Amino acid sequence: MSENRPAVTARAPAKVNLLLQVGPVRDDGFHDLVTVFQAVSLHEDVTVTPAADWGVSVEGAGGTDVSGVPLDGSNLALRAARLLAGRAGVDEPVHLHVRKEVPVAGGMAGGSADAAAALVACDALWGLHTGLDGLAALGAELGSDVPFGLHGRTAVGTGRGEQLVPVLTRGSFHWVFVLDPAGLSTPRVFAECDRRRGPGWTDPGADGRLEAVEAALRGGSAEALAAALSNDLAEAACALAPHLTRTLAAGRDAGALGAVVSGSGPTVALLTDSAAAARDVVAALTPEVGEGRLRTASGPVVGARVLEAVA
Ligand code: ATP
């Protein structure tokens, strides 16, 4: 009977960190973070279809290289679906098809977006009505960025990034993302950050960076936001992938108002003041990096939601 249910597709956004302040390592091995996430218009679409067995397939949209995505039980979309089924007492396997627009291991939380979309799609398919808070609590068990993939828009994240408070923003911000053919492992970048800080490092604490980002967002000023962008993982990411320093400089030279490593990298996010300016930055950067590595997107956009029910 479950196989008669229609397929459901849900869409979830990538994120860029406007601020990523990395605090000390906690007893559970995670770092305390103060971050500002913005959801941007690069999306993952997850379609869930009732099936005899659990399974997952992946497709790259717009040239996204999906060769690094696992198709076994470690896939985050599949883990999310099974987690929700287990907690809700559902015994109705699904096949998940993931259409990825977000670079893999790029610091834009593509895997987390897959988990967020899978939770929303399965919740709708099974008629569970879990609610956003319930799904976010499940999502936090899968990864620190999953709750934000569910909430979307712009939010301050604390804890390990899973405790979210929405931020007031005005207007849209226009981004160019420079993708990198090689991914960077998030745990490796955090470890390099710790190594560079050394054992004697003490947390400087609040330093006004969060307030500067919040003020820029409230005012809707791309210029002020560009000046306030910062990422404590950038140095570590650039140490592990030294060409990123050049990419950041090339982005500024191409006319971007600001440039920052996205999350743990290696994607570089360039902020511009309009969609037209973003296209100009793409045109200026194309000879150096190639069009295939450049994506434009705007934010904020909404979090994971059902797109359609296919009859
Ligand atoms: P974050 O910014 O959240 O740290 P990321 O954007 O750098 O993550 P992801 O693309 O989310 O990186 O994936 C990181 C790793 O997770 C991949 O290298 C892959 O091995 C694993 N993974 C598991 N499931 C997925 C999935 N559905 N899509 C992408 N990667 C997945």
UniProtKB/TrEMBL annotation:
The active site is at K15, D145. It catalyses: 4-CDP-2-C-methyl-D-erythritol + ATP = 4-CDP-2-C-methyl-D-erythritol 2-phosphate + ADP + H(+). Pathway: Isoprenoid biosynthesis; isopentenyl diphosphate biosynthesis via DXP pathway; isopentenyl diphosphate from 1-deoxy-D-xylulose 5-phosphate: step 3/6. The keyword Glycosyltransferase does not apply. Its EC number is 2.7.1.148. ATP binds at P103, V104, A105, G106, G107, M108, A109, G110, G111, S112, A113. The keyword Transmembrane helix does not apply. Residues 75-152 form the GHMP kinase N-terminal domain. It holds the Pfam family GHMP_kinases_C. Keywords: ATP-binding, Isoprene biosynthesis, Kinase, Nucleotide-binding, Transferase. InterPro entries: GHMP_kinase_C_dom (IPR013750), GHMP_kinase_C_sf (IPR036554), GHMP_kinase_N_dom (IPR006204), IspE (IPR004424), Ribosomal_Su5_D2-typ_SF (IPR020568), Ribsml_uS5_D2-typ_fold_subgr (IPR014721). It is an enzyme of class 2 (transferase). Residues 215-289 form the GHMP kinase C-terminal domain. SUPFAM superfamilies: GHMP Kinase, C-terminal domain, Ribosomal protein S5 domain 2-like. One of its GO terms (molecular function) is 4-(cytidine 5'-diphospho)-2-C-methyl-D-erythritol kinase activity. Catalyzes the phosphorylation of the position 2 hydroxy group of 4-diphosphocytidyl-2C-methyl-D-erythritol. Belongs to the GHMP kinase family. IspE subfamily. This is 4-diphosphocytidyl-2-C-methyl-D-erythritol kinase.
